Structure prediction request, 147 residues.
Amino acid sequence: MEIERKYLIDTLPEDYQDYPCRHIEQAYLNTDPVIRIRKDNNKYELTYKSKGLMAREEYNLPLDEASYQHLLTKIDGRLIRKKRYMIPLNDSLTIELDVFEDDLAPLLLAEVEFPDEASALSFTPPEWFGTDVTFSSEYHNSTLSLK
Prediction:
C-alpha cells in the first residue's frame, strides 16, 4: 500500500540541489488501471497501481533495459522526464521533490510517503510547500502523461 501526500511547489528551497538526485523517466501503457514503466537511474520496473488518491495498492516488478525499451514503443501519451531530489524531513519521512523536464517544465511537485493514513492525515507540511493536491487526480503522473 502506498500512502502519500502531494503538493505543488511554487518556490524551490535554496539547498535542494545539495540532496541526492535520481533521474527518472516514466510512461504509461494504460491509465485505467495504471500500468507504468519506469527508468530510475539505471533501474527499470513495471508498476501496477490501483485506483485511489491518498492511498493506493502498488505492485512493482523488475524489468531489464531491453524489456523497458521494447515497452517504451507501446506507451500511451508522453514520456515523463523528471529529476527527483530526496530531502530528509525527519527520522522517518523523506520529501521526494520532482522537478519536471521537457514540456511539463516548470512543474514542481513534492510527495511524502507515510506508514499509515493517520500519519498522512495529521501531516503539517514545511512552509515552502504550496497547494495540497493529494485529493486531486489532476496531478497524478498518469494524468500528466495524457495532457
Summary: The longest strand covers residues 76-88. The beta strands are 2-8, 21-31, 34-40, 43-49, 55-56, 58-63, 76-88, 94-100, 108-113. The two ends are 27 Å apart (CA to CA). DSSP finds three helices and nine strands in the chain.
